[in-house]
Structure formats: structure tokens, C-alpha cells
Amino acid sequence: MKKTKFYTPAMYIRNFSGNPVVRVDTFLDVIDDLPGCDAVELLVDEDYFDEYSDRIEEIYDATVNKGIDVPIVRISAPSLFLANSKDAKSPLTDFLSKMLAFFGTDTLIQLETLSAWQVYEYRNDTVLDPDKIPVGYKYNVYSGYVIKAILDFCKICTDLDLTPVIEPRVGHVFSNPESVLSIVDKNGNLPFKIVFDVTHMEFQGINTTDAWQSLQGYVVAVHISDTDVVSNHHLPIGEGTVPWRTILKYAAQSEDVAYLAIELLGNESEDPEVIKAGYLDGLKRVKAMISKYKLTSSFE
């Protein structure tokens, strides 16, 4: 049985703080001494890739030299969602070609999707009041932009011999198993994989066990944090309503799932010690559950 590694998905190359350089320096400080971490997930923003490519290379080299895998690179590419249909593929093809040259074909590429609501805001240069849906707001139209963008992303990745990954998220077009599978049914065998985020499923009131059963052939990684139907927050593992025994058992039995991704609390902090503490706390909690449910032999 293939064993599943642990990793933290929170080491992002992105301007959470408004300063990508600070963010990169924080990342390098964290991985310099992070016991128990087998892999990290990088997030690359298309707006910063060219300007900070040397820093991205520095991060990649640092992880490899530490023996840490980079199994998934998440890309933020809003141009794909905002461009006119005939122009949408060109910028993303260029961007993904750079990803290919940089990370190679073994790395999975996850697209940070936008919700139809966000696409409306961007395309109309406005900010919507969530309590007041404006006159003329055609949700389906903007959902169509999102669906087409995701399909284009999958096709471009396939052409470049890259594996596309999406993550069903609250409020997005791909938010539950039914929405994912309906797109598959309408467009043939789409060559994508899924990051299964238990928090997003649980908060929506979706039966997490049923969701896994529906999507198990697509799942390559599991985001691990807790939640409940009230908070919509990433709670510490074991402090919410996620059915951990079932989820961990499924992950252990799967031949496709390679990583458990521990969601960090406070992962936007610029303090390396805060990030390390969050990761180690999550690691301790999930290992305790694995031991409790007698699944230790299935995980590294």
C-alpha cells in the first residue's frame, strides 16, 4: 500500500502582506528548520512571476536541497478569467510554459479559481455588497466565464503534458461533487485531479464521506483542517465536525492520494515562528488521530 506523506500547503509565494519579498524571506526561514515536513506547496502569482523569478528559484532550490518535495504548484492567473474568450488562452499558455520549464512535468499545477461573484467584480470594476445583489447581475453568465476558464486551463495543461488540479471551494462553480461531475459529463474525460478540502465540504453541509466516494478517482491530496457549519474557519484538527476516522481511513486506502496537507492557522503571518508552531501543532494533532484509529502503518 502506498504510504501518504504529510505536508503543509501554506508556504505560498504570494503578496499576502503586500510585499512578496517579505513573504519569500519568511518562507525560507520556515523551511530552514521545519521537522516532519516532507513537502511544500508553492503558490505563484502570474503578476509576480517574472519580477520575482529569481526568488522563486531560490525557494525551489532551498526546498530541494532540504530533501523537501514540491508536489503541487498553485497558480493565480486572473487573466484567464478576465480576458475575452478569443484572447484567454494566450497569456495562460505563456505562463504555464514558464511553469513547465521551471518545475517540470512531474509537478501538478493547481489553478486558483475565481468565483462568479469575483469575476463579476473584476470585469465590472466594482465591489458588490453581499447583501444586495445588483439589478442585472446574471450569475449564470459569469459562471460561464469561470467554467470556460477551467476547461481552457485543463486543455492547455494537457497540451503541455502537465497535470491540472482544481479544488472544490465554497461559493465557487466547482463547490461540490455534483458540480464537478456535471462538468466532466458535459465535456468528456477531462484530465484533471482534485485537492479534496474537507473544510470546504463540511462547511457547506455536504456529507464528506459521500463526497469522497464520488470523487475518489480524482483525489491526489487532502487538505487537513477542521470546521463546522457555523464558523466557516479552519479550526484546529479535532475541534470541529469533520469525520476524521473515515477521511483518514479513505486516504490510507487510496492508491492515488500522496499527501495530507496540513492547513496552518495564521498562515498569513510574517513571523516564521508562528508558522512553524501552527504546522507542528497540526502535525501533532493528525498523528494523534492516526494513532488513535490504528492507521499508523499506512502513513509515513
Short description:
This protein is an alpha/beta fold.
Tell me what the structure shows.
The protein has 300 residues and is an alpha/beta fold. The chain has one domain: Divalent-metal-dependent TIM barrel enzymes (TIM Barrel, Alpha-Beta Barrel). It has an eight-stranded parallel beta sheet. Helix 1 packs parallel to helix 2, helix 4 crosses helix 6 and helix 5 crosses helix 6. The chain is globular.
Topology:
Blueprint: E1 5-7, H1 20-31, E2 42-45, H2 53-65, E3 72-76, H3 78-82, H4 89-103, E4 108-111, H5 116-124, H6 139-159, E5 164-166, H7 177-187, E6 193-197, H8 198-203, H9 208-215, E7 219-224, H10 244-253, E8 259-262, H11 272-292
Total beta-strand segments: 8
As laid out across the biggest beta sheet, the strand order is: 1-8-7-6-5-4-3-2
The CATH homologous superfamily is called Divalent-metal-dependent TIM barrel enzymes
Radius of gyration over C-alpha positions, nearest whole angstrom: 19 Å
CATH fold naming: TIM Barrel
Q: How does the major sheet shape up?
A: 8 strands, parallel
CATH class: Alpha Beta
**What string, H for helix and E for strand, traces the elements in order?**
EHEHEHHEHHEHEHHEHEH
Unreliable parts = 12-18
Distance between the termini: 12 Å
Q: Taking all residues together, what is the mean pLDDT?
A: 79
Total of helices: 11
Helical fraction: 40-55%
Structural class: alpha/beta
Total number of distinct structural domains:
1
- Outline, from the CA principal axes? globular
Strand percentage, roughly?
Answer: 5-15%
